[in-house]
Amino acid sequence: MRRVLSSLIAVSMLAIALPAAAQIPGQQQQPGQRGQQRQDDDAQEGNRSRAPRIAPLRQRANAGPCPYVKVLYDAARYVELADNRAATSNVGFTGEIEGVTAGCSYRDDDPITVQMDVLFNLGRGPQASGDQRTYRYWIALTERNNAVLAKEYFDLPVNFDGSRTASVTEEKTIVIPRKGPEVSGSNFEILVGFEVTSEMAEFNRTGSRFRVNAGSAPAPQ
Question: What does UniProt give as the signal peptide span (predicted)?
Fold first, then answer.
């Protein structure tokens, strides 16, 4: 399912200059080599005239690196526990952000456009009631190692269709305006996480976890 993060994210920050590309000076030819070089050039020109002409592909690199994209550890897993007791028999609905892949594009003074795929693995434990669950997660844009610039929440409805597990991939597009062409994507960081309670966040921080299919069977309907 494709959803687009449509709101432009206003960014105001100090301009950071990108280093200029290094230039390599040409090699100097010796006088005795010029005649031979001319013959070689003529031979190559003859070969080129007989070969079919193919238009060269245009290749333009980004103006700089892409933003850093990662899952926030404290919010990487969603585990419902009856009475907040960490036991397999108490597990309800679960979820885990299995991974994020991302790429970006920007040139000159264009905004930075980031394409993201977020993979969710979801499950039903013994205390899970029903076949449907709407999870909630967020994506945040930050100035790297600094303040949050924008944050948006998304609903993730899941129908297990009688199964104990499900996998869903969410596609997102994020557009980041820049103050100028000298501002690169490395100034930004994109974080992803579930909306979790304080108890869930503490459970994640301790490193505790249950598999998405924890428990023997879903509770009777």
Answer: 1-22
